[in-house]
């Protein structure tokens, strides 16, 4: 009896079991081999990155191929790990807050803004790492991956704004409830003569209480629209556009910090809260420095611009951009934790009675509700751009799928 073979193996008899098993072993080995990496001249122009000449994955990888490529040196491997590993580093420093003495339970309303900030950072890092890992599945998937990436960046900026608003805002929405373990912290004023001037400026108070969070959401949506559009228009200056587009939400979300640095501290100079909050400025300046570094790397494309082909796998600008971005987030987290500690150490914030906020403390609607509404709008934007990308690149993806190199399995 002869066993037919579709693997280009010669016909063998039933008794020749050793040869049969050898052929199966070769087949399995060949199936496990990764697809070849390509040069920039062998991939669609849409996939090519400036000054990166080698290490490209073919743009029709399967999901398994993409996942396995995380452990293989390609021009996206470093991009994946420089945002995937920070997820665990950020989480480690984040959970430290809940172990502080006097801190309310982790699910207390007081921590709602902090959890929204965590969600924003977590989604940003995961979406970025997955976008770089999975973008070679097809041209359409590539577009969708980076649309989601831009959306999570905008969500992160609003998460930061919520944390700034409730923990750094000069008239934070934390009102008197008589204890530290609820959603609010006790606010009591000092005698009228204890401060020479009021801390809050009325005009800015109106902005913070009425327009700050809505403005942050509107700007975030504008950023998503602009960045997604830069993948279909203005491609020559896309990196410059994306960098400066996200400068606007940074400036807007940071206004409570700017206000804090330009005015007097809300804490008595003799209090432990004042001592705890003194490092806020240094963390914020480092946060800005890392953001500036990330912008320089993203726009300049250094070092690969100086030596095309030498930094294709490790050390190119996008990896340094990721590192600087995460370091800026880490310093931002330390800054927020500093202000949290100052609040928890101060049963009464020493603000004059006239400047006490009329706003309620953190609520589900004012934190999770805001983020859910924002996410719904961003998802709608991503769906629209994804549909448009499918109309443009869908036919090209189908053609590339037909031209994908086949694996020829041979037994010797």
Structure commentary:
Residues 1-10, 24-31, 173-202, 349-359 and 406-412 have low confidence and may be disordered. The two termini are 22 Å apart. The protein contains 13 helices and two strands. It has helices at 17-32, 63-68, 77-94, 112-134, 139-167, 202-229, 238-245, 247-253, 255-262, 272-277, 280-300, 317-344, 365-403; strands at residues 2-3, 12-13. It is elongated and about 80 Å long. The protein is an all-alpha fold and 412 residues long. Helix 3 runs antiparallel to helix 4 (112-134) and helix 6 (202-229) runs antiparallel to helix 8 (247-253). A two-stranded antiparallel ribbon has the order 1-2.
Summarize the structure.
By secondary structure, the chain is an all-alpha fold. 58% of the residues lie in helices and 1% in strands.
């Amino acid at each position: 009896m002869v066993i037919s073979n579709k693997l280009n193996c010669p016909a063998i008899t039933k008794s020749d079991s050793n040869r049969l098993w050898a052929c199966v072993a070769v087949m399995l080995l060949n199936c496990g081999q990764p697809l070849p990496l390509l040069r920039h001249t062998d991939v669609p122009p849409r996939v090519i990155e400036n000054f990166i000449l080698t290490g490209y994955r073919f743009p029709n990888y399967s999901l398994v191929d993409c996942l396995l490529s995380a452990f293989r040196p390609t021009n996206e491997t470093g991009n994946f790990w420089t945002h995937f590993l920070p997820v665990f580093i950020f989480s480690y420093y984040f959970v430290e807050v809940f172990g502080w003495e006097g801190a309310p339970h982790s699910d207390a309303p007081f921590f709602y803004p902090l959890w929204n900030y965590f969600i924003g950072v977590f989604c940003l890092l995961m979406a970025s790492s997955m976008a770089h890992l999975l973008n070679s599945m097809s041209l359409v998937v590539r577009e969708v991956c980076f649309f989601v990436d831009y959306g999570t960046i905008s969500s992160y900026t609003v998460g930061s704004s919520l944390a700034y608003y409730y923990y750094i805002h000069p008239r934070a929405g934390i009102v008197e409830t008589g204890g530290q373990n609820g959603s609010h912290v006790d606010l009591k004023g000092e005698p009228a003569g204890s401060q020479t001037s009021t801390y809050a400026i009325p005009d800015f108070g109106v902005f913070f209480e009425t327009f700050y969070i809505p403005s942050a959401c509107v700007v975030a949506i504008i950023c998503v629209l602009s960045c997604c559009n830069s993948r279909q228009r203005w491609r020559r200056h896309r990196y410059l556009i994306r960098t400066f587009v996200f400068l606007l939400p940074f400036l807007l979300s940071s206004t409570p910090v700017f206000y804090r640095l330009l005015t007097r501290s809300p804490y008595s100079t003799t209090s432990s809260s004042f001592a705890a909050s003194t490092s806020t400025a240094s963390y914020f300046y480092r946060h800005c420095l890392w953001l500036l570094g990330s912008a320089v790397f993203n726009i300049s494309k250094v070092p690969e611009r100086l030596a095309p082909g030498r930094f294709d796998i490790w050390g190119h600008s996008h990896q340094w951009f990721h590192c600087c971005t995460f370091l800026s987030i880490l310093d931002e987290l330390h800054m927020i934790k500093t202000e949290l500690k100052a609040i928890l150490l101060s049963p009464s914030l020493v603000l004059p009675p006239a400047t006490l906020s009329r706003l309620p403390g953190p609520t589900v609607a004012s934190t999770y509700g805001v983020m859910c509404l924002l996410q719904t709008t961003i998802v709608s934007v991503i769906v629209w751009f994804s549909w448009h990308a499918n109309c443009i690149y869908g036919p090209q993806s189908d053609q590339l799928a037909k031209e994908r190199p086949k694996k020829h399995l041979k037994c010797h």
